[in-house]
Amino acid sequence: ISKGEAKKQARKRKAELQKGIVPKKSVPIPRKDYEYTKLNNLLNGEKDRVNVYSVVLDCSSPYFKEEINKYVVLATLIDETLHPEDSKKVSKKVVKATLFGKTAAELPSPKVVGSILRLHRGETKKFGNTYQFNCDFNIKGSWALYAFEGEDVIEKHGRNITFTSRDQELLNEIQSFSKKYFLSTELAYTPLCEAIKDKRTDFDTLVYIAELKLKGTFVRAKFLAESNSISLNLPQNYRFAFSVGQVVRIRSANIKSAKEITLNEYSNILIVPDQYKSAKLLKKGLLAEGVPLKIKKRMDEYTPSTITTLLKHRNQDVVKLSSFFVNPATGDGKQKFRIKVAVMSIEPKDPREWIVSSDQIAKPIGDKKESKAKPKADCITNWYFKLVLLVKDVSDPTNKTLYRIFICPLSGRGKEFFNVNIDKGPTDQNVKELKEISKKLLKKGAVLDCIVGEVMRRDG
Question: 316, 453 in Cβ contact below 8 A?
Answer without folding.
Answer: no
